[in-house]
């Protein structure tokens, strides 16, 4: 019933009278089976910081549109769009009716950054969704001098 349970844990149960009717005979070997070894293997943790971290705010923005959500907002929006600054991790969320509104909200964010921080984003990273791979957005980013990276 205990399958590959640690033998010391089972002995501890019997020593504390927590398991009744178990007769443990020492087998004289402490070797573990291959199954035990494989299941106890761990992978190294992910690094806390990636080596490619940007040096300043608005150097790199990550954006994505998620949805459609099952439940719409009160404003009949069923998608949300995130824009995350790579350096500060500052996150802006827009609720959108359709994915096509992404271009409008990126323009709005760029204008806000210019006004509030007197700085234009240098690069925007997104997936290859049609909301990001469109002529209107590409032309706007080119005029603004903003690079676009696709994942």
UniProtKB/TrEMBL annotation:
PROSITE patterns: INTEGRASE (PS50994)
Keywords: DNA integration, DNA recombination, DNA-directed DNA polymerase, Endonuclease, Hydrolase, Magnesium, Metal-binding, Nuclease, Nucleotidyltransferase, RNA-directed DNA polymerase, Transferase
Keyword Lipoprotein: no
GO molecular function, one term: metal ion binding
Integrase catalytic domain segment(s): 43-151
Biological process annotations from GO: DNA integration; DNA recombination
Leader sequence segment: none
Pfam families: rve (PF00665)
PANTHER family tied to this protein: TRANSPOSASE, PUTATIVE-RELATED, TRANSPOSON TY4-P GAG-POL POLYPROTEIN
Protein name from the UniProt record: Retrovirus-related Pol polyprotein from transposon TNT 1-94
Recorded name of the encoding gene: POLX
